[in-house]
Amino acid sequence: MTPDDEPILSYLTDMDGVLVHEDHLVPGADDFLAELRDKQIPFLVLTNNSIRTPRDLQARLRHSGLDIPEDAIWTSALATATFLDDQRPNGTAYVVGESGLTTALHEIGYVLTDSDPDYVVLGETRTYSFEAITTAIRLVERGARFIATNPDATGPSRDGLLPATGSVAALITRATGKDPYYVGKPNPLMMRSALRRIGAHSQSTVMIGDRMDTDVVSGLEAGMRTILVTTGISTRNSVEQYPYRPTAVIDSVADLVGRTSRPFGD
Length: 266
Description:
HAD-IIA family hydrolase; HAD-like_sf; Rossmann fold; 8 helices; six-stranded parallel β-sheet; HAD_sf; 2 domains; about 20% strand; hydrolase activity; alpha/beta; HAD-SF_hydro_IIA
């Protein structure tokens, strides 16, 4: 038996581009998750977006036709809060972001302040304020440690691309000379924190994603087998542009229905 033939005991899966696409259900995603529940296979749905809380995302997914428990959703905001709680418990932070991030930090006991904070934490928001960015620059310049939830440079909207965390982080870096520490994908730290969340081991877990440059590389670096689906960003042709490869490329998560315990080596 090769490693790819070994049973799968748990799954991590990206959300956008894998389970939903622009708030519409990816056909077969509901059947895939239903099979995981029926077989009692632990899973966690991951997203780099830090805007919404898990409860908000649960409601969004339910509207799309997916019933996913709140505690089965893992965001870059939660991963960032977990990281900060480990590094400096009960610390202080100046936050540029929305409720997904501020709620996660409040829940670990952080105080949010602009008065000599331990960290400046940058997350996703649709209303970046020049005043807030200026405050962040000044605090980083004075010695606050610079953390960002994820490096995504742009995000989607109905009207086209929007500047996202990575773009605003670049602005702060250009002004201060300080690079942020990114917690979210492709940092495998987010994968490892997700594995701990469900008590899973990388050897028996599969990461499913739609992007080679975030989902697949972070899953690979965390020691997991990886599946690329072509319902999102990356395509079968674009796989060849990278020096690493997923364990498998499939059209959609619908292809996993009926074979969730052994998705490889049939």
